[in-house]
Specification:
Elements (H helix, E strand, L loop, with lengths): L11 H13 L4 H7 L3 H4 L1 E4 L2 E4 L7 H13 L2 H10 L13 H4 L10 E2 L2 E2 L1 H19 L13 E5 L6 H9 L8 E5 L4 H8 L7 E6 L6 H16 L7 H4 E5 L2 H7 L6 E3 L16 H28 L6 H15 L4 E6 L7 H13 L17 E4 L10 H6 L6 E8 L7 H18 L3 H7 L5 H10 L8 E8 L2 H22 L10 H13 L10 H18 L1
Parallel strand pairs: 5-6, 5-7, 7-8, 8-9, 10-11, 10-12, 12-13
Antiparallel strand pairs: 1-2, 2-13, 3-4
Bound molecules: 6-O-phosphono-beta-D-fructofuranose.
Length: 553
């Protein structure tokens, strides 16, 4: 084991924060608002069409001061600089972490060196190749092997090679160009089968999106798609016009049968969950076109500049990271809900789940030392208002502390009746109700006309403790630019927390073990050999074998 260069939980400020939590935990936000009419002005920041209101949190100026001191103890500025300048901060994989470089504008004077080479020109070369390909599909210039215009694009990929591109494509539906984009991630055959039912081989391009080009789910789905394509009467030579790949393993893509000219490169210093900005975004480029994709990158770059150049007290991702960490570490709150009040953003919680939980769901620090405190929030959520009719009961009256992010576009792309105002009103009402709560006296007052016995029964049921924290993010509109800001903002928030906990947020060893065991179990499901797992796994495999055979006979 290596020695940690610092142990954050042994710093004085860590202890001070615990002490501060104990002495402030009974403060109610209602009172904090009553005491300071300027609280919103002091605790909100607007940036390029985005407003972050973080005033509905269980924090005071002292809390923020201590949290910022904690960030300084963890040398957050130093780590920000290391990331931005291409230092190999992904220690376990010996890689730089440069998703921010992907968002640099083409005319930038910035140079970013990896192993002594400035990577900025390569980034733009690959970006331009991918954008040109997307454009050629939408303009009907890249034709299928039989001369058909391409109408459908199927992205086959999983994890970061699916979640980000899919979420962005759905969110930016109003910007859709000519081709329809579909996503196949799951190895459950239903996923591929249902997409293949909708498309025609002659007018479809498949993108095999896999950074490693070893992910079994993606490779099996891609092989099956290729077999389906050939079954439609096409020849092997036609594959070149219908299959492209995005990968950092060009040789492996070639082994699969995709010519190097049809492979869009992905750099090894881009993590899967940070890769939508790279060639992995090819499906998004096809969906929204080059100009919109460039706006998306510009939004990401704008918040990068803000993140790298703004003092912590006014820095949006830093504040979000610190406030999230306040609850996670000092309130022992395990989860964090993300509620987008926008139908297009309905896959945002799923994307953020991977981004946050795969990055910070770790109990070993970057040097291999066991951490003796909890890290990594359980991220979950669902679009509003549907979620209000599902799990908000627990947020309002349950016993747990669950911080929430409310994401609310001010303007909708869809001019349908009164819907958008009602939607936004619901979002704002939830944040108010969660913060204020309702006292027993207020509940009694509401039931003034009721018979006393029934009132005694009902009033306690109508008490809302309140003091439930939330951040509200108002977005001008879900445009490519604003979505870019939002996504990159969350990436930096995760980074901030990882740095303070001492975690390497850019590896994901935790997903490997299950993959290895699945490889071992897979052949066992269809043979009769003796099993040597634990009794539960043996029993489950045996039951599966038996019933699988029954179905097959
Ligand atoms: O689930 C683990 C993981 O490695 C993710 O980090 C990644 O996004 C996903 O698998 C897909 O990987 P690849 O793009 O290499 O197929």
């Amino acid at each position: 084991m290596n020695t940690a260069d610092y142990a954050i939980n042994h710093t004085a400020v860590w202890a001070q924060l615990h002490q501060h939590q104990r002495s402030t935990r009974f403060l109610h936000m209602r009172d904090l608002f009553a005491q300071d009419p300027q609280r919103f002005e002091k605790m909100s920041i607007s940036f390029n069409g985005l407003l972050l209101d973080y005033s509905k949190n269980r924090i005071t100026e002292d809390t923020l001061r201590l949290l910022i001191e904690l960030a300084c103890s963890a040398d957050l500025s130093g780590w920000m600089h290391k990331m931005r300048s291409g230092e190999k901060i992904n220690i376990s994989e010996n890689r730089a972490v440069l998703h921010t470089a992907l968002r640099l504008p083409e005319n930038t004077a910035a140079k970013v060196y990896v192993d002594g080479r400035n990577v900025v020109p390569e980034i733009h070369r690959e970006l331009n190749r991918a954008l040109a390909f997307a454009q050629s599909l939408n303009e009907g210039k890249h034709l299928g092997a039989r001369g058909d215009c391409i109408r459908d694009v199927v992205n086959i990929g999983i994890g970061g090679s699916d979640l980000g591109p899919q979420m962005v494509t759905l969110a930016l539906k109003p910007y859709q160009q000519k081709v329809n984009v579909h996503f196949v991630a799951n190895i459950d055959g239903a996923n591929l089968a249902q997409v293949l039912e909708k498309v025609f081989a002659e007018s479809t391009v498949f993108i095999v999106a896999s950074k490693s080009f070893t992910t079994p789910e993606t490779l099996l789905n891609a092989k099956t798609a290729r077999a389906w394509f050939l079954q439609q009467g096409f020849q092997a030579a036609d594959i070149a016009r219908h299959f492209v790949a995005v990968s950092s393993a060009v040789d492996k893509a070639a082994d699969f049968g995709i010519a190097p000219d049809n492979v869009f490169a992905l750099f090894d210093w881009v993590g899967g969950r940070y890769s939508v900005w790279s060639s992995i975004g090819l499906a998004v480029m096809c969906a929204i076109g080059a100009a919109n994709f460039r706006d998306f990158l510009a939004g990401g770059h704008a918040i990068d500049e803000h993140f790298f150049n703004t003092p912590f007290r006014r820095n949006i991702p830093v504040l979000l990271g610190l406030i999230g960490l306040w609850y996670n570490t000092f309130y022992a709150s395990a989860s964090h809900a993300v509620i987008p009040y926008d139908h297009g953003l309905r896959r945002l919680p799923a994307h953020l789940q991977q981004l946050d939980m795969e990055s910070n769901g770790k109990q070993t620090d970057r040097y291999g030392n066991r951490l003796d405190f909890d890290t990594g929030a359980v991220i979950w959520g669902e679009e509003g208002v549907n979620s209000q009719h599902a799990f908000f009961q627990l947020l309002h009256q349950g016993s747990r502390l669950i911080p929430c992010d409310f994401i609310v576009p001010i303007n909708s792309h869809y001019d349908v009746g009164e819907q958008h105002r009602v939607l936004a009103a619901n979002a704002l009402a939830q944040t108010e109700a969660l913060m204020r709560g309702k006292t027993l006296a207020e509940a009694y007052a509401e039931l003034a006309d009721m018979n006393p016995r029934r009132r005694d029964l009902l009033a306690p049921q109508k008490v809302f403790p309140g003091n439930q924290p939330s951040n509200t993010l108002l977005l001008d509109k879900v445009t490519p630019f604003h979505l870019g800001i939002l996504l990159a903002m969350y990436e930096h928030k995760v980074f901030v927390q990882g740095v303070i906990w001492g975690i390497n947020s850019f590896d994901q060893w935790g997903v490997e073990y299950g993959k290895v065991l699945a490889k071992r179990i897979e052949p066992q499901l269809s043979d009769t050999a003796a099993l040597a797992h634990d009794s539960s796994t043996n029993g489950l495999i045996a039951y599966f074998r038996e019933h699988q055979r029954e179905r097959n006979t």
